[in-house]
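Hey all, quick one. A colleague (J.T.) asked me to put the 2-phosphoglycolic acid job into the tracker so the inputs and the C-alpha cells live in one place instead of scattered across chat threads. No bug as far as I know, just bookkeeping. Sequence used:
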Amino acid sequence: MNITFRQLQIFESVAQHLSYTRASEELHLTQPAVSMQIKQLEQSLGLSLFEQLGKKVFLTDAGNELRRYSSAITTQLDELEQMVDEMKGLQRGRLTIAVATTANYFVPRLLAAFCQRHGDVTVSLEVTNREQLLKGLVENRTDLVIMGQPPKDMDLVDERFLDNPLVIIAPPGHPLAKVKQIPLKRLLEETFLVREQGSGTRSSVERFFAANKLALSTPMEMSSNEAIKQGVAAGLGLGIVSLHTLSMELALKRLEILDVVKFPIMRYWHIVYRNGKRLSLVALGFQEFVKKESRQILKLPAA
Ligand code: PGA
C-alpha cells in the first residue's frame, strides 16, 4: 500500500465537506488536483471511498472506515508536531555552560544580566578547573566554555573577551606591601600558596617563573582561590591569583596586591565551543552577549 499523508489530508477535507469544490478551496488546490489525489488513493487501496448520487457526494463504507483511521493518524501527527515544537522551545531556552573556577567570580553577573533580558532561559553552570573543562570539551558535554587558555590542539571557535591579570597577594602589613617595583628574585625568599595541578592559574604561573628561570618555594597547594586567599590573609604565605577574585578582599582591605616587576601576568578570558557544534539559539545569544557586553556589565573600563 502506497499512500501519503497529503492524500489522507485531502481525503479528510473531502470527507468532512462531502464536496470536492469546498475541499479544493480549503486546501488551496485546484479541483482536478483534489480529484486526482483521491483517485490515486482509491487505486492504492483498491477500494472506492466516495460515491456520487446526483449532485451529492457520499462516503462509502470503506470511506467511513478510512476516515476513522485517518483522523487518528492526523491527531497523532498534530501531537508529534506539538512535541517537536516543545522540544525545540526547550532547547532554545537552555544554556549549558562550563567555566573555570576563577571565572566564577564574574560569570554569574553576566548570566544574571542575560537572563533578565531573555526571560525563560534555563541555565546549567558547571564550575571546574581547566583540566576538567578540557575533558568536557572533548566529551562534548557542554555548549560553551569560559576558560583562561584554550588548547591549541583542538578545533575551537574562540573569542577573547576580557583580560585576566594575575597578581601577587599578601596580608595587610606584609613587609613587601610598601615596596615599589619588587624584583622578581626577591620572591625567592617568600613562601607561596599555589593552586592545584590542573588549574589554569597554576600552569600559567609555572610557565612564567620557568621563563624567568626562577624556582619559587611552593610548599602549599590549595584547590580553590578562596582557600588561597584565606591562607594568605592568615599569614601562611603569599599567593598568586586572578584580580577578578579579589574585589571583596581589596574593598575590605583584607589583602594587598604587591608591586612586583613584570607583574601582573597578563592573561585573557576566552569563550569557546567546538567548531561544528550546533549551538542552540540561546547559547549563540549568550556568546554574542559575552563578547559585546561583558565590560559594560562588569563595569570595567574599555579595553
Ligand atoms: P583556573 O582558571 O585556574 O580556575 O583553572 C582557569 C584559567 O585561569 O585558565
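Adding what we noticed when we looked at it: Residues 100-102, 129-130, 147-149, 195, 199-201 surround 2-phosphoglycolic acid (CB under 6 Å). The longest helix spans residues 61-92.
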